[in-house]
Every structure is written in structure tokens, then in C-alpha cells.
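To whoever picks this up:

The nightly regression suite flagged Acyl-CoA thioesterase as changed. Nothing in the input moved, so I suspect the structure step. Input below, exactly as stored in the fixture:
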Amino acid sequence: MTFSVPVLVRGYELDSQGHLNHAVYHQYGEHARWELLRAAGIPQDKFFASGIGAVVLESTIKYRRELRAGDEVTVTAELDFDGGKIFRFHHRIAKLDGTVSAEITVVAGAMDLTARKLIADPATHFRGLAENPELLGL
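Regenerated output under the current build:
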């Protein structure tokens, strides 16, 4: 299942060439991730209260087409658990006409905030917290 959120590119997010600043793509992905978790029934406060925090281990962006102020985009978020300690988020940022502006892959983990180590089975933890685990592919 693909989850998505709308975003309007704002003028203050642009670089000196008038394109969306590279760092903002990461922010759009993070926004989509938290919105996906919230829609699944895991808002930030509930997630942190469980003693677990999400950590980004790697983030890769493939830029396809530029974005400018006023562009309306959809940011997708799909979660992929592979059975180990890490999982992946896949994002696509596309204009309303379907033009793909960027693709982002984030490798992440769920860290025990006391032990400061990744938990062994994040999918089970997410499933236990979620009210709508199907949104997380669980």
C-alpha cells in the first residue's frame, strides 16, 4: 500500500538558482514518514513513549526533475521490513501531473532509547503499536 501526503513548495525552501534546496527533499521525506506513522496510529508521542526512537542510517536521493516555488507535489511513503534489525522507507516526490522530481530511499532502524542499540525485530514493535498496521505493510 502506498501512502502519500501533499506538499506545496514554498519560496523560502529554494536555493540560489531558484530550485528546491537539496536538504528540503530530506525534510519532505521525513514529513511523509511521520504522517504515515500517524495515519497508522503511531503518533510521535506514542512512539517515543514506547521507549523506542527511529534512527536514519542512510538516505539516498535520485533527483529527476527540478521543483520551484508554488509547485504542488505528492510525497509517497512505503515501508519495507526485511526481517532484520533494519527497514527501508521508499519515497517518490512527484508533481500533480505525474512528473517524478525525486526518489528517496532511507535505511532506518528502531533504537531502544535506554540501551542505545537497535532492536532485533522492529516490525513486531511497530505492529504492536499500530492501530492500522496494514498502512505499514504489516
